[in-house]
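User: I'm writing a tutorial on reading structure tokens. Could you give me a worked example: one chain, its sequence, then its tokens, then a sentence or two explaining what the tokens reveal?
Assistant: Sure. Here is the example chain.
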Amino acid sequence: MTEDRMALLAMAEKAGETDFLRDLVREVVQELMEAEVDSRCGAERHERNAERTDHRNGYRSRRWDTRVGSMELSIPRLRNASYLPGFLEPRRAAEQALTAVVQEAYIQGVSTRSVDDLVRAAGMTGISSSQVSRLCQSIDER
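And here are its predicted structure tokens:
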């Protein structure tokens, strides 16, 4: 517990150097994932336990876009099962539909500003030209 407080204090001291809220969210989410994986495995990291049901197998990186900004998360891997935290759901149908609309507009040659207007008209907060490019990257590769 003391180590957690010290880490939080160190992060607060660096608040001027980085985005404090985004770093805080990332740290909390990482700890939640670790706790969830510990419960799925039946043992903590590096713990020997006869009741262990699975083992950790490294991490994979995944980008997570939030209201406080984008961040890279290290998602724990398991040897015998797959793990995806609940807050990182696979793309839902609405998100897939929005992606399809953005990609179709891109194919038709609609400007990124007009795509932003289209997304805003759909009730979203908007989309930047870099986000449009990232969504349409697979189209460019084909």
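What the tokens reveal: The beta strands are 56-66, 69-78. Helices lie at 2-13, 20-41, 93-107, 112-121, 129-135, 137-141.
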